[in-house]
Amino acid sequence: MEKVKVISSLISTGSFNDFVNAIFDLSEKQSSSYVCCANVHMVIEAYQDKAFNEILNNADLVTPDGRPISLAIKFFDKINQERVAGMDLMPALLAEAEKRGKSVYFYGSTEEVLSKIREQIYQDFPQLRIAGTYSPPFRPLSEEEDQAIVQQINESKPDLLFISLGCPKQEKWMAAHTGKVNACMLGVGQAFLTYTGLEKRLPKWARDWSLEWAYRLYLEPQRLWKRYLVGNSLFLFLILKRLIFRSY
């Protein structure tokens, strides 16, 4: 899929269904690949960190997760790009995986959330095979622990490996495990919580107006104020800079 540059990040373009099919094409190869879902926060992290920018740009696919990202592509590249959010992509992939007889694995979050995911999948997609789940401790894994979980994942032979560790941790994890984990890895962040209903999403009209950041800021002001108020302001500045000077 063609990629275009937003700030310093290469974002894949195509319809929502194009992304779904491309992800399953990656899984058919039965080798390591990874998919990032890029919102404003991720793009700004990449702009400020060259090493992380390389990780993002080396991804097999980078979806335009945030509405401002898809709008920037539409404005500057003249591509009518729809938003492809991880929160929408994960349930769509689960449904398609059931139809195609594929298996899924979930890495990250807490045991409570993973248990809720199993319950929801049994209800929504009773024929879908869950290859496994793993909630890592809130500390770096030792080399031995990491090797053990990689072996466990590979022995379970998942087609899709959904990862929820938060940005940029999950993207760094996927890059570090490329060539080790034999699956298509997808960093989907908050999708674990929204799929289970543990975190509510705004109505579609509010999402179309790019207001999800404000809702999340309301939920976690102390943790997220800098990310959104500073990061979003920098994003707008860089977009305006390109608009005026034709460059970032």
Automatic annotation (TrEMBL):
The keyword 4Fe-4S does not apply. It holds the Pfam family Glyco_tran_WecG. Keywords: Glycosyltransferase, Transferase. One of its GO terms (molecular function) is hexosyltransferase activity. It comes from Thermoflexibacter ruber. Signal peptide: none annotated. InterPro entries: WecG_TagA_CpsF (IPR004629). NCBIfam families: wecG_tagA_cpsF. The keyword Hydrolase does not apply. This is N-acetylglucosaminyldiphosphoundecaprenol N-acetyl-beta-D-mannosaminyltransferase.
